[in-house]
Design a protein that fits this description.
Layout lengths: L29 E4 L5 H15 L7 H9 L6 E8 L5 E12 L2 E10 L8 H19 L5 E8 L3 H9 L3 E12 L13 E5 L5 H11 L11 H4 L12 E5 L6 E9 L2 H7 L3 E9 L8 H15 L4 E8 L7 H5 L3 E12 L1
Parallel strand pairs: 4-5, 10-11
Antiparallel strand pairs: 1-2, 2-3, 3-4, 5-12, 6-11, 6-12, 7-8, 8-9, 9-10
């Protein structure tokens, strides 16, 4: 229940919206800026949405606070929630504008209570997100950007809405899992590279290695020391590893693997897993079995803690993307999603 709506339509609360962004209107809802104080109401709404749509995950209060409130990498952002006459949250929308390799992206997220669907609220919020993104981009002096929306492949109604708004599918995502009951290969990286446990003292060195490894990747972000530490509510250091090249007296980070432990998702997806969040190898060490060794080491750690599967996600510019190394290691697809984009 939200009781702090004050009727304002401009000047959002700190961290809620960009300067000049206006609240959406209509549909019998009171629209207000979404802030950390209303995060519990957002999770209440997400629970109803996820119960109905049944994705293989469930958003926790802590996860939502990280995902929807942390703004360190954003050039600007706007976040709103719609409340009915009884104080129940019924819809939300978020847009974040951030620089990535090659362009700015306006990352759009939103949802409508299943009981309030088929009344045009989703289309209204999508239009609001595009206008808000343009306002934020203008304030940042950016002419060109891409609006980005992720949808599950079975959400055909949402995909139709996006196509009608001028969006086209541009990336295809596949979640994969690997049965840890199956044998794992013995793999060692070439040269004087060793796979070592996660070391907090090397965290910033891993950040710099990540920025180097992903500097030319589609949508790659250059992390600051602040943004690198965001989104770690479920980071599992005991399942994370660093590949160090000890050719010289001063070890260099050749690659890294960071894992997450999402216990709240296990019941919904139907199995336990260690999830590989980020895997990166710097160009100088590619082709030296570093990625393979990191993956196998992580899988052994997952298995040692009783996990049934290893999980990860891959993306491709085509729907029939090649799974390459992951397929060779025994990973199999479990679900698919799409990224839709359009100029904004």
């Amino acid at each position: 229940m939200l009781e702090d709506y004050d009727g304002a339509t401009r000047a959002p609360a700190p961290g809620a919206g960009g300067t000049g962004v206006e609240l959406p209107q209509g549909h019998g809802l009171r629209w207000q800026w979404l802030t950390v104080e209303s995060n519990a109401a957002l999770v209440e709404l997400l629970a109803r949405i996820e119960e109905h749509d049944d994705p293989p995950y469930r958003t926790t209060l802590e996860e939502s606070a990280e995902t929807f409130v942390a703004v360190g990498a954003d050039a600007g952002n706007a976040k709103v929630i719609g409340i009915d006459a009884d104080g129940v949250p019924r819809a939300y929308a978020i847009v974040r504008v951030r620089p990535t390799a090659g362009t700015y992206r306006a990352l759009c997220d939103g949802g409508v209570d299943p009981a309030w669907r088929s009344h045009g609220i989703g289309a209204t919020l999508l239009g609001w997100q595009l206008r808000a993104a343009r306002t934020i981009l203008d304030a940042a002096g950016q002419d060109n950007a891409l609006a980005v929306v992720h949808v599950e492949d079975n959400m055909t109604h949402a995909q139709t809405m996006l196509r009608l708004a001028g969006f086209v599918p541009t990336r295809w995502y596949t979640e994969m899992r690997r049965d840890l009951a199956l044998p794992l290969p013995e793999v060692q990286p070439k040269g004087k590279v060793t796979i070592e446990p996660w070391d907090p003292a090397l965290d910033d060195a891993v950040r710099r290695a990540h920025n180097d490894a992903f500097k030319d990747q589609w949508g790659g972000e250059q992390h600051t020391a602040e943004t690198w530490l965001q989104g770690r509510t479920y980071f599992a250091p005991q399942w994370s590893f660093i590949a160090l090249d000890r050719t010289s007296d001063r070890a260099r980070v050749a690659g890294y693997l960071m894992s997450g432990r999402y216990e709240g998702d296990w019941e919904a997806q139907g199995w336990t897993e260690g999830y590989t969040e980020i895997l990166g190898v710097r160009e100088e060490w590619r082709g030296m079995r570093v990625a393979t060794a990191l993956l196998v080491t992580a899988m052994r750690a997952y298995a040692a803690d009783g996990m049934e599967y290893a999980g990860l996600g891959v993306d491709s510019p085509a729907p029939d993307g090649d799974f390459g190394l992951f397929g060779q290691l025994g990973y199999e697809p479990t679900r698919h999603s799409l990224m839709f984009t359009r100029a904004v």
